[in-house]
Each structure stands twice: as C-alpha cells, then as structure tokens.
C-alpha cells in the first residue's frame, strides 16, 4: 500500500509554484505597464538627429526622410531594421504611412506621415510618445484648452503616458515618432480601425508581421 505524501514533499512543491507565479508576475507587469525596461533610444538625441536630417534634406521631403532614417541607422545600428518598408496605418480616425525602424516590447521608432494631411485622436496609452516633426506641421489640443499647440520641423511633441489629445496635420507632414513604455497597451488602438472602418487586413497583417519580427529579434538579444 502506497504511503501518504508527507509535509516535506508538499512544501517544496508549493514553494516552486509560488516561485513560478512570482516570476510570471515579475515579467508580465513590466511588459504590460512599461516600467523598468532597458531603453535603447533617447528622445533628446532623436530630436537632434531629426534636426540634422532636416538640414541635410534642404526642404525635399524624400531626402529629409532618407537622411533621418540613415542617421538613426548609423547611430543605433542593429536595433534598426536593415530594410524597413512602408505600410498604411489607420488609428484614431487618422490615416498615414509608416516606416517601422524598431519595435520591441518597451519601445518603437517609426517614420509616420502623409503627403495629404490627416486628423484624429492621439490615443491614451501606458507609454510616452515623442513626435518630432521633420516635414510640415502638427497641431494638437487638449480637451480643456481652447488654444492649439503648433509643432514645426525640428520641434518635438511629447505626449505623456495617460494623456490624450486631438491632433491635426493641415497639409503634408512627416515625423520621427518614438514611443517608450508598454507597447502592448498601444496595439488595440493601432488595430481597432481595421475592424470598425477600413477592413484593410493586408495592412493589419503587415503591421503584425513587422511588429512580431522586431519583438522576437530584440528578445533574442535580451532586450524587452
């Protein structure tokens, strides 16, 4: 007849379970809320790179975008995709094109803009967003302020975590956009317009694939 398990066997099992649970919580909370991550990018430095790219581009949008992209690649190396590609992005009622330069669980870096102008909701995230204009203007407004904010080329619009605004690009506009925090918390906002409006599942799939590629690549390097 098999004997009953004694307390000495139960305790280690419970300790292991508690340890595993603690490990899951320790990993999940920073990933979801965006705290305590290793950050590769510096928004101040990105703004300076953007200004240099604007100067090199001499008013030509194509040259400005390529100059900024090259400067960022030279500075941050393997953390930037070698051959990024353009795709449509619809979010918060606004539409534009984006070039994904970097994506990980705690940061993303893109070129975003449109030659046509756009307007929408910024979103309200568990992440800080730094929108550095490189071509054109961005206008923004808080719900309780009757004056607009205006951001010209070289200026950086910082949207703190938990804050939302209305924004508009009145004409052609391009920006180097950097987000730091819980990138996962931003995904529903980025995907929602596909299901409620555009039904552009090709662009959605492109976004998912490039995001997954970037996240996996950075995780393999030990970066969250």
TrEMBL record:
* Primary location class: endoplasmic reticulum
Where does it localize?
Endoplasmic reticulum membrane
Any one Pfam family here would be ERG2_Sigma1R
InterPro entries reported in the protein's UniProt record: ERG2_sigma1_rcpt-like
Instruction: Kindly list the GO CC terms recorded for this protein.
Output: endoplasmic reticulum membrane
The keyword Calcium is annotated on this UniProt entry: no
Instruction: Give the transmembrane ranges.
Output: 15-35
This protein's UniProt keywords: Endoplasmic reticulum, Membrane, Transmembrane, Transmembrane helix
Highest taxon, organism lineage: Eukaryota
PANTHER family per record: SIGMA 1-TYPE OPIOID RECEPTOR-RELATED (PTHR10868), SIGMA NON-OPIOID INTRACELLULAR RECEPTOR 1 (PTHR10868:SF1)
Give the protein family: Belongs to the ERG2 family.
Q: What's the protein name?
A: C-8 sterol isomerase
